[in-house]
Specification:
Blueprint (H helix, E strand, L loop, with lengths): L5 E6 L8 E6 L6 E3 L3 E2 L4 E5 L9 E8 L9 E4 L8 E5 L9 H4 L14 H4 L1 H8 L6 E5 L2 E7 L5 E7 L7 E4 L1 E2 L15 E7 L6 E9 L2 E5 L14 E2 L30 E5 L1 H5 L14 H4 L13 H8 L3 E4 L3 E3 L2 E2 L5 E2 L6 E7 L12 H15 L3 E6 L11 H5 L28 H18 L3 E4 L7 H12 L6 E4 L26 E3 L1 H7 L1 E4 L2 E4 L8 H8 L14 E3 L9 H8 L5 H17 L3 E5 L20 H8 L6 H4 L4 H5 L1 H15 L9 H7 E5 L6 E6 L5 E6 L4 E4 L1
Parallel strand pairs: 1-8, 18-19, 18-31, 19-24, 24-25, 25-26, 26-27, 27-30, 30-31
Antiparallel strand pairs: 1-5, 2-3, 2-6, 4-5, 6-7, 9-10, 10-14, 11-12, 11-15, 13-14, 15-16, 15-17, 20-23, 21-22, 28-29, 32-33, 33-34, 34-35
Length: about 725
């Protein structure tokens, strides 16, 4: 039985709180009395339970005198999943339900009304004008002293908690608020910044901030700018630059970064997950290295048949870059027995810290940093760039993240009633248009580039970010190395920003040199998966000749792209079914060779399209996530569901079976040739639409013909024929 609890805060202008109680009910049921249990600076406080077998999203209540001589209006209250405390604030005479105290203080029915109390949530321009700061935040270590800075403009007071080790109590040191006010030059405006300098060598110490937003109430938090974490992940860690720099690691930009591709349109990007990459026994790695940064960069690993796996396989295929699914610190969930439950990592907690689960050494708190840098260096030495999948669009927790604890309701997009907007579908969405989160995103990106030598960024749900922020990131990276890649999911998530401000592919003409995942091409080639329904693509015989032909010549028909470099072509990524499994669902009667032919045709189309090319590792050798769990070894309905959305599926589903490399050598060799041709920079890597228009011709794409023929004139006449009837690809 679930409690379905809410905490009610009630205010009345007369502030005479004797003889008040509540009446609670659920839709369709008679109600019953409920009672307040205390009083705070807002008014009365009480907790109400609505027992039910299921989570209840909507409940009802009113406040009344005990004799019913007076009562408020009926309030309908929304409840929220996750870690939401489900607090509400209601005010006599006001029919609104408020989900944060700050917005309740703006009510005209509240004594001492403060019209500006919720500016941080809904009037960010005004709030930023007064409080924003453009200087460094976090800590700055020197052997003789360390300085700390935290932006928390509305805090009453803040203390730095310093821990030398886990056994000693914290040293509690008061921090001072800045006194400089300069709303025209925010680099000088430190009135919202708290700082303190501590003498002595603090290398290896950990810290938290104790923040009082009210006189007698505080919360302890990690630093939003954490670079490293204690072993229990509860505290931020202080470390010298030298301690975080492994032997042999170096950061190179510009001409020195010889592994970066000069022409992005010739790049072939390979997506992988650190754990999935080597967790299977067929990876050829010893057990202790599987699923780790070090395992991902270990040379000379072989599958049981003697074919290369891991980094050696990546290099042999000729991939330009690897794109790593989230490697930053993310939320962990554990079973009743204390076992870590698998999750890909799209649950951000600390954006600037590599996740400990991928470290070989679980005892050294700096191991995730050192080992990840070693991995990056190894890939660079092999001529392969490293791209990060970044998830700045939401945080795992709306209420306990360092952002919310340090500056409540500022960093997120809020509704007028004090509840969180949720375009991400994960409980909240970050407000990239607010100056201090825009600054945070840029600071974080620069940290990964300048400290870890990262070569590009894939922005998860990029359509939740704003155009100006994405352009600022692109322009800033251009000042370091214009070859650093920036691309993302340009979907319009439907809420939050005004349409023209969204960094969606519909606004591609506002964001030159930022690339967008080309779902139009994906759907045309592979097929669509929409809310559980599946539609066939060209390789399954669907009459999508026109769509496929437009994808081949740069996809300008699908979105207002300014250049081919804004188009990231793909047919498979970590989301949804991978290519092999979708084709198995669509064609259950296909034999092995027929399915292989469709896979080859799909890959040939993907690698022949103008723009960047993106591939999920394994799509070239029939990777499958259909792991049978039926009593007789059959694939069940649940197995299909896991394969189509495997973000939290076990290793048996997600791990890469390297034995498939040996089984499908013929397919791999053919696709490897296509990768090499794409990378050659001759025919399929045009950087201007004018050159594509003058040089590339669609010769055949008749509806239901099953044939798309493309010819390219220069540097030599070349034709490509894609035939879904014959499930074939030819070039001559």
């Amino acid at each position: 039985m679930l409690k379905n609890q809410i905490t009610v805060h009630f205010h009345t202008k007369n502030e005479h709180y004797q003889n008040y109680s509540m009446w609670k009910w659920l839709d369709g049921y008679w109600g019953e009395d409920a009672f307040f249990s205390g009083q705070d600076d807002f008014g009365l406080v009480g907790q109400i339970n609505y027992p039910s077998e299921n989570f209840v999203q909507q409940v009802n209540l009113l406040v009344k005198t005990t004799d019913w001589s007076s009562q408020t209006c009926d309030y309908t209250v929304r409840r929220f999943l996750g870690d939401a405390p489900n607090n509400i604030w209601i005010i006599e005479g006001d029919s609104n339900v408020y989900y944060s105290k700050q917005v309740a203080l703006t009510s005209p029915f509240y004594n001492g009304r403060d019209n500006t109390a919720f500016d941080m949530g809904i009037r960010a321009n005004d709030f930023d004008h007064r409080w924003a700061y453009q200087g460094w935040l976090g800590f700055r270590y020197q052997k003789e002293k360390t300085k700390f800075k935290l932006w928390s403009p509305l805090a009453d007071r803040i203390y730095l908690l310093l821990y030398q080790n886990d056994q000693e109590p914290a040293k509690i040191i008061p921090m001072k608020r800045g006194h400089r006010v300069n709303t025209d030059h925010h680099e000088l405006n430190n009135q919202g910044v708290w700082s303190v300098t501590v003498d002595g060598d603090l290398n290896g110490w950990s810290y938290q901030y104790r923040i009082y937003h009210e006189e007698n109430f505080y919360q302890d938090t990690r630093d939003p700018y954490s670079r490293a974490l204690s072993l229990d992940n509860k505290r931020s860690l202080i470390a010298s630059n030298q301690a975080m720099r492994p032997e042999g690691f170096s950061v190179k930009q510009g001409k020195e970064a010889v592994w970066r591709t000069d022409n992005a349109c010739s790049a072939v990007i390979c997506e992988m997950h650190i754990r999935d990459f080597t967790s299977h026994a067929s990876s050829g790695l010893e057990q202790s290295l599987r699923g780790t940064f070090l395992g991902a960069c270990r040379h000379n690993s072989l599958n049981p048949a003697g074919h290369p796996t891991g980094i050696d396989y990546i290099k042999s295929m000729g991939y330009s870059y690897v794109q790593l699914q989230p490697i930053f610190d993310h939320h962990k969930t554990y079973s009743d027995k204390g076992k870590l439950l698998y999750n890909w990592g799209y649950d951000p907690e600390n954006y600037n810290v590599p996740d400990r689960q991928f470290a070989f050494d679980q005892e050294d708190p700096l191991a995730p940093i050192l080992e990840f840098k070693e991995m990056v260096q190894t890939y660079h030495d092999a001529g392969i760039g490293v791209i990060m999948d970044v998830v700045y669009n939401h945080t795992y927790s709306s209420y306990n993240s360092p952002f919310q604890l340090s500056s409540p309701y500022y960093y997120y997009r809020m509704h007028n009633d004090g509840s969180f907007q949720d375009g991400s579908g994960c409980g909240n969405e970050m407000a990239s248009e607010k100056e201090m989160f825009r600054k945070y995103m840029l600071d974080s990106i620069l940290y990964w580039v300048e400290e870890f030598n990262i070569d590009g960024f894939r922005f998860d749900l990029m359509g939740l970010h704003d155009v100006a922020t994405m352009n600022l990131i692109r322009d800033t990276l251009d000042g370091i190395d214009s070859r650093i890649l920036v691309y993302g999911e340009g979907w319009d998530m439907g809420v939050g920003l005004p349409f023209k401000q969204k960094a969606s592919k519909a606004n591609a003409d506002q964001m030159p040199r930022i690339a967008f995942f080309n779902d139009n091409a994906r759907d045309a080639v592979k097929g669509r998966e929409v809310y559980g329904d599946i539609e066939a693509g060209f390789v399954s015989g669907a009459p999508l000749e026109w769509e496929v032909s437009q994808a081949l010549i740069g996809s300008q028909a699908f979105a207002p792209y300014l250049m081919p470099g804004q188009v990231l072509n793909y047919i498979e990524a970590h989301d949804n079914y991978n290519l092999h499994d979708l084709l198995k669902v669509l064609h259950p009667d296909d034999g092995k060779e027929d399915r292989k032919a469709r896979v080859y045709l799909a890959n040939a189309l993907n690698l022949s399209m103008q723009g960047l090319c993106f591939m999920q590792l394994g799509q070239e050798f029939m990777r499958s996530k259909l792991y049978p769990t039926g009593q007789n070894g059959e694939i069940t309905e649940g197995d299909y569901l896991r394969a189509s959305n495997s973000y939290n599926a076990p290793d048996s589903v997600n791990s890469l079976d390297w034995s498939l490399v040996s089984e499908h050598q013929d397919l791999i060799k053919k696709i490897k040739k296509l990768v090499s041709f794409k990378k050659s920079g001759r025919l399929l890597s045009q950087t201007r639409y004018e050159d594509i228009i003058h040089n590339e011709t669609i010769e055949e794409n008749g509806y239901c013909s099953g044939i798309v023929k493309v010819s390219i004139e220069k540097p030599e006449k070349t034709s490509f024929i894609f035939n879904n009837h014959e499930k074939s690809f030819e070039s001559y």
